[in-house]
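Technical annex, item 7. During the second reporting period the consortium partners agreed on a shared format for inverse folding records so that results from different sites could be compared directly. Each record opens with the tokenized structure and is followed by the designed sequence. A conforming record, contributed by the partner at site C, is shown below for reference.
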């Protein structure tokens, strides 16, 4: 869950409408870069990662907002467990390896299944189009098409180009997510 610090309301130049906790889940296929993103945001540096079996959970402070981020493993055998992390989730960060053209259809299928879950019907969706530093990476426009994001008529969503190892685009994505959640 994201816990909003009371001082965020006192020092904000814009209205803040948060009530209580806001939960965010970080998911995506294995090797998309979820754990790298989590620890780049948490520590500001790249850490050596191994495939996540189960989950990592860390608190990340950004712009007076305290994000508690659940990074859930993405291997196919673990994906049925994702739904156990969806209760009270108001923000969903879906990470895609933009360079993995062979599995983009699999990403689209998993995303489609996930957003049909009742617990996520009100959640805003942030897609991190990760690994943009690689030469064959799909751009945001191409990835948006392949994921079918334009078909999400009743869902607030945003696709953000990112490179987790360099930190590029991560904070822009958090800015969008924070702004959208503050409207609720």
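Designed sequence (site C submission):
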């Amino acid at each position: 869950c994201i816990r909003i610090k009371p001082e965020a309301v006192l020092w904000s130049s814009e209205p803040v409408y948060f009530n209580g906790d806001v939960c965010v889940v970080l998911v995506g296929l294995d090797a998309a870069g979820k754990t790298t993103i989590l620890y780049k945001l948490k520590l500001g540096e790249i850490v050596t990662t191994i495939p996540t079996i189960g989950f990592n959970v860390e608190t990340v402070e950004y712009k007076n907002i305290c994000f508690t981020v659940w990074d859930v493993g993405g291997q196919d055998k673990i994906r049925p467990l994702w739904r156990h992390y969806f209760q009270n989730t108001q923000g969903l960060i879906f990470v895609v390896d933009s360079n993995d053209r062979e599995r983009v259809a699999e990403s689209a299928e998993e995303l489609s299944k996930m957003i049909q879950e009742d617990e996520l019907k009100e959640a805003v969706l942030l897609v991190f189009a990760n690994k943009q530093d690689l030469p064959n990476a799909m751009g945001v426009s191409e990835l948006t098409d392949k994921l079918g994001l334009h078909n999400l008529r009743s869902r607030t969503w945003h696709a953000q180009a990112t490179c987790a190892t360099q930190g590029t685009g991560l904070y822009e994505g958090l800015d969008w997510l924070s702004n959208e959640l503050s409207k609720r």
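Residues 1-20 have pLDDT under 50 and may be disordered. The domain at 2-182 is CATH 3.40.50.300 (Rossmann fold). All partners now use this format for quarterly exchanges.
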